[in-house]
Amino acid sequence: QVQLVESGGGLAQDGDSLRLSCAASGRTYSTFSRYSWGWFRQAPGKEREFVAAIRWSGDAPIYADSVKGRFAISGDSARNMIYLEMNNLKPEDTAVYYCAAMIKGLQDLTIGRLYHYWGQGTQVTVSS
């Protein structure tokens, strides 16, 4: 089992930056690199959507078109942490953001149902 806890959400204004963190615990120790990691978000009244992901193999991260060039995903295996750096935030980025882990991550990282573990989410609200 892997437990994921997100933090770093909050209120921001148009153009601001926020950094989300995801702390992984459980069976991640010594196997952190065997997981692929993703960030998803869900706005009120909308379906959950893919934001960013990083594969265990070290391939280049992938991003949704809506955040490309503004968001950056990274991982710190020594601390079992996953980060989402969000720059130039826009009101349409308002959502609950979720961290997710996929064992091995050989499949499509943009598909949420393929992930094995999820955090509880952290709210990000961007005002204009």
The number of E-state strands comes to 11
Topology pattern, helix = H, strand = E: EEEEEEEEEEE
Helicity, in percent?
A: under 10%
Mean pLDDT: 92
How many angstroms separate the termini? 40 Å
Rounded to the nearest angstrom, the radius of gyration is 14 Å
In terms of per-residue confidence, which ranges show pLDDT below 50 for 5 or more consecutive residues?
Answer: none
Content-based structural category: mainly beta
Number of helices: 0
Note the main sheet.
7 strands, mixed
How much β-strand is present in the residues?
over 45%
Shape: globular
General description of the model:
By secondary structure, the protein is mainly beta. It has strands at about 1-5, 10-15, 20-25, 35-40, 50-55, 60-65, 70-75, 80-85, 95-105, 115-120, 120-125. The radius of gyration is 14 Å and the shape is globular. The termini are far apart. The mean pLDDT is about 90.
Which tags fit this structure?
single chain, 128 residues, mainly beta, seven-stranded mixed beta sheet, 11 strands, 0% helix
SSE layout:
Blueprint: E1 2-7, E2 10-13, E3 18-26, E4 35-42, E5 49-54, E6 62-63, E7 71-76, E8 81-86, E9 95-103, E10 117-118, E11 122-127
